């Protein structure tokens, strides 16, 4: 009888540990999704505040994008643009994030409005920079976890839609 109870206790303990393990894995995955989301929104805030030095810190050293920029050319472009910009507003909608151990991918609809020191441009006029000229452009963002365990943006590109 005692042997039967011991066996049931082992089975019950195994079941409870399995549930706790699954909960831990789910919690950790959700934590990484939140960390990726925080990185994206922190980078967005830095750019909206026209702070290229802070914004560039969210880019991985190996950063590239669909427009042929790398981390250095983004910095130079941002410095030039921000010196002539009064206000920059970025709207992100429909954000979805997938994370694995070291890489993450986010898809998001982005709209950018820039107020230059002399004129107002919407992203319809900035289609040469942002591609399709639609009011909201679907964009793919790839991130990589750096050696210091921080998420950094590794690649940006518009998603072609019909």
Number of helices: 4
Please count the beta strands (DSSP E, at least 2 residues each).
6
| Cα radius of gyration in angstroms | 22 Å
Global structural class: alpha+beta
Overall, the morphology is elongated
Overall helicity: 40-55%
Percentage of residues in DSSP E strands: 25-35%
| Helix and strand run | HHEHEEEHEE
Mean pLDDT: 79
N- to C-terminal separation? 69 Å
Instruction: Detail the poorly predicted runs.
Output: 123-134
Let me know the largest β-sheet: 6 strands, mixed
Quaternary: single chain
Output the keywords:
single chain; 162 residues; alpha+beta; 6-stranded mixed β-sheet; 6 strands; 35% strand; elongated
Provide a descriptive summary of the structure in words.
The longest helix has 47 residues. It contains four helices and six strands; from the N terminus they run ααβαβββαββ. Strands 1, 2, 3, 4, 5 and 6 form a six-stranded mixed beta sheet that branches. With 162 residues, the chain is of the alpha+beta class. The chain is elongated, with a radius of gyration of 22 Å.
